[in-house]
Every structure is written in C-alpha cells, then in structure tokens.
Amino acid sequence: MQKLFTLLLVLHVCTCVRAQNVTLPPVFTQQESENAHRSPMTKTYLTPTRIVWQSDDSGKFIQHPELLLKKSNGQVAVNDPKLLRLISTAEHKPGILLDYGRELHGGIKISMGIKPGKEPVKVRVRFGESAMEAMSNVGGKRNATNEHSLRDFIIEVPWLGSIEVGETGFRFVRIDLVDEGVNMPLYAVQAAFVYRDIPYLGSFESSDERLNEIWRVGAYTVHLNMQDYLWDGIKRDRLVWVGDLHPEIMTVASVFGNNNVVPRSLDLARDQHPLPQWMNTISSYSMWWLIIHKQWFDNYGDLDYLKEQEAYMIGLLDQLETFIDENNGEILNGGRFLDWPTSPDKKAVHAGLQSMMILTFDAGSDMMATLGKPDLQKKYANVALRLRKHIPEGNTTKQAAAMMALAGLVDAQQINKDILRKDGVQNMSTFYGYYMLEAMANAGDHAGAMDVIRQYWGGMLDLGATTFWEDFDINDSRNAVRIDELVPAGKDDIHGDFGEFCYVGYRHSFCHGWASGPTAWMSQHVLGITLLEGGDAVKINPHLGDLKYAKGTYPTKHGLIRVMHFKGVDGKVQSVVDLPVGMKQIK
C-alpha cells in the first residue's frame, strides 16, 4: 500500500508539472554553479575519549557524564531517559572538560534531548589545543585569544535538537552552563572533524618506534593544514604563509604526492602579491616561492604549470637582483625575516638572507634552463656567483649557519662541528630545524641528525603532542607537565607559561605545518629517496645510522617507490628497491 501511494504521488506531481508546462529546476542554476565554492573537505563526527575534569563529582550538578564517552549517532530522540544532565543553581554552574584524543580541525556538534521547557539553553564553549587552554579565559597573563578563529564563546542549544559550531584547531573542549536554574539533558558532544580525505601514500618504518611516531605526527600535522589552501596552522594563523610552505610541501610530496593544494596555494600567493610586492610582505617568502617551484618541478615535471609562472618568475628574479650592493651583499627591504628566534639578530638575518639569495638564483637559473631560456639561465647563474663572493661574518645562530652551509658559503662539516652540534638541541627552532637537519646531512652527520630528531621533536611527543608546534624550547620542558593534564601548583604550563614574539602563552599554535620537517627529511635521507628529472628518475642513498632497518614508500607521478634497507652483520646496508614502471634509478 505504501509503495502504491508513493507511485501515485510521483505520477500526480509529474502530471501537474506537465499540465502547467513547468520545467523543474536543476539543483543549481548555471550561474549559481559558477559562483559556488566546492570544498574538497570531508566531515566526520568523533566521540570524546575521556573526561579530563568536571566541576562536580557528587552527582548533584552533573549526572551520568560517562554517557558522553559512548559512540552516538548524534540524532536526538524523545525516549532517552538516561542522558547526561547538567543542572545549575545560582551557586554552581556545572562544567565539563572533554578530550578527543588528538589534535583536530573543525568544531563540535552539541545535541540536547527533551526537557519540560522548550527554551534553548545557553552554554559557554571553550576549545583548546591543550587542556589548560580550554580551561582559560580570553586575555590575562597567559594570553588566550579569539584571534583568527573563535575558541571561547556562548551559544544557545535548541530544545530537542542540535547545533554545530566552531572552526578551529583543538583537542579539548570545555562546556559550561551559563544560566542558573537549568536542567539540561545533554545527548552528545561530538567533534565535527573537517579534513581532506586522502590516502597516506608515503610511509616510514624503522627499528626505532620513536622515529616512526615522529614521521607519522609530522605527516598528520601537515594533513590537518591541507584545508582549502595549505595553511600554516589550524588555530592560527590559518593563512598561506609562503615560507611555511617549503617544509610543508616537502612533507606533502613525501606523504601525499602531487596534491593540488600546493599549486593552488602557490598561485594564490602570486595573485595576492603582484610585483613589486613581497609575498606576505616578507622578501624571503618571495624567495621561498621560487625555491618551492624548483622543488615541485623536480618532483613532478609539470612543464605547462612551470610555464604559467614564467613571467612572474622573471620579474621577481630581476627585482631581487636590484637588492645587491657593490660588495655583492644583499640589501633586501620589506620584512627581513628568517624565523622568529633569529629576528632580533641582524647579523643572523643578513647571513640567512644572503644564503637564500644564492639558493634562489641557483633555482632560477635551473628553471630558466628548463624553460628553454639560456640567456636568462646564464644571467641568474652569474648573479649567484656574485653573491657567493660576499661571506657574512659574525653569525653564530644555528638557523643562519645551516643556510650558509646549504648555500655553499661555508664548510658544512666545520659548521656542523662548531655551531649545529653545539649545546645539543638547545637554540633549535621548529621551522628552521628542517634546514639544520639538511645541513647536518650535507656534513655527513646523518646519525647526529637522527639524534636531534629524537630529542627535539621527540621532546614534544613526551609532552603529549599529537601534532608539532609553532615553536619549542627544550629548556621550557624541565618543570612542565603534559598538555593533556591540568597543571598542579609548583609545575609549569608548557602552553601558557612560555613563548615570545607572536606566540606568547596560549596564542602559541600547537599544530604548525612548518614543524613537519623530520617527516620529509627521514623519507629523503633515511630511506634515501630523492626524485630527479621531473620525477622520472630517482637516486636512492639510504643512511641508517644506528637503525637495524628502515623501509617505506614514496609517491611519484608513476606510482609508489618501495624500499627496504637492512644493516648486515658487517655493518653494510643491503637494499631492496621496487620502482614503478616508467621510472629509472640513477646510481
């Protein structure tokens, strides 16, 4: 009978439409379709893994909190008598702090069951990348903010309904009742996790599980930042910072392969900053844009895409050449920036920028050769030669020293001994840490670089990190507790008590793509995989250090490279390599 009724209804609608000579509209008109933005993102709803804190343990103000930890379909119903209840009085407004187990991007979906009064219920929502951030108030000494993404606000939850709010980076959520005299039947508080649903094509496994976990966390850090564009951070700044993109795209290439979020972000930066503007107002970030394009072409060989950049590249390289003085030193204007820790040190900044100018003109010369412009190839190669005649003096920072080694201005082994290995992992930075690792590899100190990864990036894991941070000073961890714990008296809050420059206190981003360098570094230097000739060739040169074995995969335009390296009893490395069809190995 039901099927017959449905059929008759459909026939009736169709008859009415024909009789009135009406054409049913498509889902979107052509104009609407052209104006629509189709997001590549996926949304999944997650259940909290534990309750970190609740304001009441007596059962008077919070009843059945354990129900929030049961998987929910998010659909409220009229016959769920046993729900979590938040009950407020004038003296007590209950609150609860939830942990979703790992850093996420998105918001939360709060669902309320049935209650006698149909008025909505006001709740205060606080997101946090650490437990303590979710317990904080905006402002104050620890500098919690609502900048870039709202993480502390009041909303109304509808009677017998749901509301979904939030667009930020978080792991923890605190929910508090705002008004007195409320008995709220809370059905579920689910994380609305927004992410790119793409496979992890690259992989890394070794005899050291700490390194394995660091590789995975670096990959996940960048994955979360692969939103509509490739961001620096999911809580802040949520922007396309071109300098940040370089270590990020190295990780994208190692894990996800040729994903269009990279060219999409590079094109956005180009179009947002027509010459003579510097990208993000920072001269070095314009240089990173050129270096990234060279790397992206080496991996994927998309000549048509490179040709699209030709006019801007030539204009930018010619503009950069005007910022060289008679002594062959750079005199760049705009924001003069390497990373935050070096920003007050003018000698370090100059040394780093001089090195970047050399690397940029080397990359520019190579790209002009690829584009079939021999005159420009020679011109930019000569500019790089001029720049190498000026060797900055007085720098002692690891960041600038690493760049000078990579640019060939100093001996890599001497710099590694005198500066990079000095004081262990003190004076590191999460952004330029990648280039320190690269410089150590240039010096042949792969084992030392792996120790740095274990201690520095592993130090964040020891503090509960599930993604890598905007900055990390190993000295701050001495008296600090993990980010998934509330800080007792006499202990330091690793999130709220430290930081400087733009990342003071809770403003500090705990998911920052520029910190993912070890993932790309281990794929390239431990697995030994370097793509060449536009991704048609590969050089495989593994360095196991103290590892017994290392194996993994690397995505290319031809398919996956698979490698397995074992250290024999004689200490020599034996390798098994499986290349996809169409790719050759260069010895």
UniProtKB/TrEMBL annotation:
Return the InterPro entries for the record. Answer: 6-hairpin_glycosidase_sf, 6hp_glycosidase-like_sf, Bac_rhamnosid6H
One Pfam match:
Bac_rhamnosid6H
Q: Which Gene3D superfamilies match?
A: 1.50.10.10, Maltose phosphorylase, domain 3
What are the UniProt keywords, alphabetically?
Signal
Q: Where is the Alpha-L-rhamnosidase six-hairpin glycosidase domain?
A: 201-526
User: What transmembrane ranges does the database entry give?
Assistant: none
Instruction: From the UniProt record, give one GO term of the biological process aspect.
Output: carbohydrate metabolic process
Position of the signal peptide: 1-19
Q: Which SUPFAM superfamilies match?
A: Six-hairpin glycosidases
Superkingdom as given in the UniProt entry:
Bacteria
Q: Does the keyword Signal feature in the UniProt annotation?
A: yes
Q: PANTHER family given for it? A: ALPHA-L-RHAMNOSIDASE SIX-HAIRPIN GLYCOSIDASE DOMAIN-CONTAINING PROTEIN (PTHR34987:SF6), C, PUTATIVE (AFU_ORTHOLOGUE AFUA_3G02880)-RELATED (PTHR34987)
Write down what this protein is called: Bacterial alpha-L-rhamnosidase
Show the taxonomic lineage.
Answer: Bacteria, Pseudomonadati, Bacteroidota, Saprospiria, Saprospirales
